């Protein structure tokens, strides 16, 4: 007799809820943990998440709870979908309930402020688990499209191939969700975190009224920045040509659904930072992670000019036109991959 795989998903936001839908429909016994009792009760009873996914019918088998111990009981996969900057504190509160053999899965796309750690590093440190028990899911995965059952592909990364394959199997849901495996956790995570910073830059340019040449330039040179940082941190360069690199960069930088692109667009249209923050109801990871990405780049002596001006515009009062001038006035150089 085969027993059902159990998954606990932490975070009832857009992506946590959508990924929980995929896991539940793929046949895993899935429980969603959330902070707010009213929302959790509504998900559990009405199978809807009106705050984050209005109009989407969640699977009847998907359970929801505010009790981490209940969500974690017997879990094979512990899936984490909270904001990157709160993960450390969240996980510290949950870790005593995590089953000893469970695989911890990060859906998050940020770099921790202060430590410059990737989410898998934070997970390993706080939950005290080896790298073989930590996996990452990333790629061009705009939650709202996937929740409407549009097809999407993703990358499931773990240094242990067998673990990646186990998770791949658990979330493979034809014809809706197609996960590929990869062993390059560093590259997959960097692709996901840094594309948010580049999407802010593309958004700013679009908000200023710039056209597609500027967007394409920022995406291409942004990919060069991601690749340079990846090379310095030991990532596989091929990862950045894949779904978690190029794929996610294109989806995020071009989609009106992207919170990061939209945040940048509002700044580019002349709204103040305070106004944009007030208008942004969901997690736009690049807003905080641009600072940790830049710090990481400086630690490793990697040049990231787009990231520098994004930090300037978002945090240091630089005007969008000054940012554009700075980028375009850099000394000319040959175009070489990774340079
Ligand atoms: N939405 C997407 O399309 C998408 C796709 C792929 C990856 N991601 C990544 O997934 C992660 C989560 O994104 P999301 O879109 O679900 O965000 P979201 O803003 O929709 O939801 C965030 C969730 O975290 C909860 N939360 C906020 N502060 C918290 C705290 N202090 N403690 C515990 N929970 C807290 C919120 O209540 C909410 O349930 C991010 O790192 C994001 O970059 C998002
Ligand atoms: O809405 P964003 O900008 O957080 O992007 C969502 C996903 O990361 C796209 O893959």
UniProtKB/TrEMBL annotation:
Pathway: Membrane lipid metabolism; glycerophospholipid metabolism. PROSITE patterns: NAD_G3PDH. Gene3D superfamilies: N-(1-d-carboxylethyl)-l-norvaline Dehydrogenase, domain 2, NAD(P)-binding Rossmann-like Domain. NADPH binds at residues 14-15, 35-36, 52, 109, 143, 259, 285. NAD(+) binds at residues 11-16, 143, 259. GO terms for molecular function: glycerol-3-phosphate dehydrogenase [NAD(P)+] activity; NAD binding. GO terms for biological process: carbohydrate metabolic process; glycerol-3-phosphate biosynthetic process; glycerol-3-phosphate catabolic process; glycerophospholipid metabolic process; phospholipid biosynthetic process. Sn-glycerol 3-phosphate binds at residues 109, 139, 195, 248, 258-260. Residues 184-323 form the Glycerol-3-phosphate dehydrogenase NAD-dependent C-terminal domain. InterPro entries: 6-PGluconate_DH-like_C_sf (IPR008927), 6PGD_dom2 (IPR013328), G3P_DH_NAD-dep (IPR006168), G3P_DH_NAD-dep_C (IPR006109), G3P_DH_NAD-dep_N (IPR011128), NAD(P)-bd_dom_sf (IPR036291). It is found in: Cytoplasm. The active site is at 195 (proton acceptor). It catalyses: sn-glycerol 3-phosphate + NADP(+) = dihydroxyacetone phosphate + NADPH + H(+); sn-glycerol 3-phosphate + NAD(+) = dihydroxyacetone phosphate + NADH + H(+). Residues 6-163 form the Glycerol-3-phosphate dehydrogenase NAD-dependent N-terminal domain. Substrate binds at residues 109, 259-260. PANTHER family: GLYCEROL-3-PHOSPHATE DEHYDROGENASE, GLYCEROL-3-PHOSPHATE DEHYDROGENASE [NAD(+)] 2, CHLOROPLASTIC. Belongs to the NAD-dependent glycerol-3-phosphate dehydrogenase family. Catalyzes the reduction of the glycolytic intermediate dihydroxyacetone phosphate (DHAP) to sn-glycerol 3-phosphate (G3P), the key precursor for phospholipid synthesis. This is Glycerol-3-phosphate dehydrogenase [NAD(P)+]. It comes from Nonomuraea montanisoli. The lineage of its organism: Bacteria, Bacillati, Actinomycetota, Actinomycetes, Streptosporangiales. The gene is gpsA.
């Amino acid at each position: 007799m085969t027993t059902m795989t159990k998954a606990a998903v932490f975070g009832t936001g857009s992506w946590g809820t959508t990924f929980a839908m995929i896991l539940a429909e793929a046949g895993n016994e899935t429980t969603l943990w959330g902070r707010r009792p009213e929302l959790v009760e509504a998900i559990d009873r009405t199978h809807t998440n009106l705050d984050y996914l209005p109009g989407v019918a969640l699977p009847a088998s998907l359970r929801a709870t505010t009790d981490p111990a209940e969500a974690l009981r017997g879990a094979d996969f512990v899936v984490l979908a909270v904001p990157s900057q709160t993960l450390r504190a969240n996980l510290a509160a949950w870790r005593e309930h995590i089953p000893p053999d469970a695989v911890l899965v990060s859906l998050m796309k940020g770099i921790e402020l202060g430590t410059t750690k990737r989410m898998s590093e934070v997970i390993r440190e706080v939950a005290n688990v080896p790298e073989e028990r930590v996996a990452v899911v990333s790629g061009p995965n705009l939650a709202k499209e996937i929740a409407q059952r549009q097809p999407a592909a993703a990358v499931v990364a773990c240094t242990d191939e067998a673990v990646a394959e186990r998770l791949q199997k658990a979330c493979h849901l034809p014809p809706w969700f197609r996960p590929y495996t990869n062993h390059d956790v560093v590259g997959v995570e960097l692709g996901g975190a840094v594309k948010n910073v580049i999407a802010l830059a593309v958004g700013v340019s679009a908000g200023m009224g710039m056209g597609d040449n500027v967007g394409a330039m920022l995406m291409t040179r942004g990919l060069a920045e991601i690749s340079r940082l990846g090379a310095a941190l030991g990532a596989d360069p091929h990862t950045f040509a894949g779904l978690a690199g190029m794929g996610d960069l294109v989806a995020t930088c071009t989609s009106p659904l992207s919170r990061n692109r939209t945040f940048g667009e509002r700044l580019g249209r002349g709204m103040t930072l305070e106004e944009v923050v007030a208008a942004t109801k969901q997690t736009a990871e690049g807003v905080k992670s641009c600072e940790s990405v830049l710090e990481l780049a400086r630690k490793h002596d990697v040049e990231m000019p787009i990231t520098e001006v994004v930090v300037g515009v978002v945090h240091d009062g630089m005007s969008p036109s000054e940012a554009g001038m700075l980028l375009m006035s850099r000394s000319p150089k040959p175009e070489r991959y990774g340079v």
